[in-house]
Amino acid sequence: MPVMKRYVLRLFISLKYITANVVDRNNGRIVASSSTAEHTIKESLECGRSCNAKAATIVGEVLARRLKVEGLNEGQGRGIHANIGKEVGKKGFKNQTKVWAVVNALQNNGVKLILDDEDDDKNSWPNS
Hints:
globular, alpha/beta, 5-stranded mixed sheet, 4 helices, about 35% helix, 5 strands
């Protein structure tokens, strides 16, 4: 049975790195990824600051380009779902600007994002 929200944006933010993945929930495969841990992205950042809002914007821009190359910037017509409340809740309030920087960079580069409400994801695991 296919999942209604097939493509989902997942963010991982640590003290050193920012990683953004788009996951195909039908088969659990990552279809596109971008991270400040990548050598080419890390070199383009000023002073080695790989975990700030500017770095998050660059991660979003690179991910948008990779989605366009894969032909998934529209999410096969359904869009790519992003649950901002859940992402900010997992990362903490201090990382809210980084989450929004990635989301805004994706939207500004032509990716069709569908922002979901926090309680809208009925297929997720409880207490996650």
